[in-house]
Amino acid sequence: MSLQDVTDETFERAVLGASGPVLVDFWAEWCPPCRVLTPILERIAEEHPGITIVKINADDNPATAMRYRALSLPTMKVFEGGEVVKTMVGAKPQGAIEADLAAYL
């Protein structure tokens, strides 16, 4: 399963306007842990349809990355009702991410 890419222009509609929880993965192409995280997030999205998972390239979309202080990559933020309700920094195994997301899955 491929994750939806969002941009500075589509972030508000895709994330802030979403009806359920959205996990946003702030990443960059030069970031090896980001590349490790992608297939893990794809599996989580497939196994847990109750949460939407999207990716935003922090280098290509600096306004959103700065607004939400995604200073270290990868940074994952859970949004609910247009607000950040959880922040996770760094790549983790699938089980650890699912444990962090238990309230939203």
Explained architecture:
- This protein has one domain (4-104): Glutaredoxin (3-Layer(aba) Sandwich), CATH 3.40.30.10.
- The chain has 105 residues and is of the alpha/beta class.
- The mean pLDDT is 97.
- The two termini are 17 Å apart.
- Strand 2, helix 2 (32-47) and strand 3 form a beta-alpha-beta unit.
- 33% of the residues lie in helices and 26% in strands.
- A 5-stranded mixed sheet has the order 1-3-2-4-5, with helices on one face.
- It has 4 helices and 5 strands; from the N terminus they run βαβαβαββα.
- The protein has helices at 11-16, 32-47, 62-67, 94-100; strands at 4-5, 22-27, 52-57, 75-80, 83-89.
Question: Mind sketching the topology for me?
Answer:
Blueprint: E1 4-5, H1 11-16, E2 22-27, H2 32-47, E3 52-57, H3 62-67, E4 75-80, E5 83-89, H4 94-100
Parallel strand pairs: 1-3, 2-3
Antiparallel strand pairs: 2-4, 4-5
